[in-house]
Amino acid sequence: MPGAGAPAASGSRQTGAGGESPSTAGSVSIKNDAFTPKLLTVKAGTTVTWTNDDEEPHTVTSDTNGPLHSPGLDTGAVYHFTFTTPGTYTYLCTIHPFMHGTVTVTQ
């Protein structure tokens, strides 16, 4: 979900946790019922890839009316989204709602 006053990001998707320290890499692993890294910071225009490295399905879904809406991701499946607008985007796994992550997009 975008931060206050920020428009929603645009992006595309394809089908195919973790620590509290922010990361600047454009990838997130889904493993052991967690998003790793849990906090990700990227520049606008970055495509983030989530990969399900777990043995059960997961989703990547914006908390409220945001741009992230993956289908169920089986083991090895990936979801891509390109963040074009700065803001803070929070998401969860709808299958396991205790799993949360955040992508912060900077200029």
Question: What does this molecule look like?
Answer:
- The protein is mostly beta strands.
- It contains no helices and eight strands.
- The strands form two sheets. A four-stranded mixed β-sheet has the order 2-1-4-6, with no helix packed on it. A four-stranded mixed β-sheet has the order 3-8-7-5, with no helix packed on it.
- β1 (27-31) and β2 (34-36) form a beta hairpin.
- 28% of the residues are buried.
- Mean pLDDT is 84; it is low at 1-20.
Number of DSSP E strands: 8
Over the alpha carbons, how many angstroms does the gyration radius reach? 12 Å
Distance between the termini: 17 Å
Backbone structural class: mainly beta
Main β-sheet, in a few words? 4 strands, mixed
The residue ranges in which pLDDT falls below 50 over 5 or more consecutive positions are 1-20
Q: State the strand order across the main sheet.
A: 2-1-4-6
Give the DSSP E fraction (strand runs of 2 or more residues).
35-45%
Mean pLDDT: 84
Number of helices: 0
Order of helices and strands: EEEEEEEE
| Shape by Cα distribution | globular
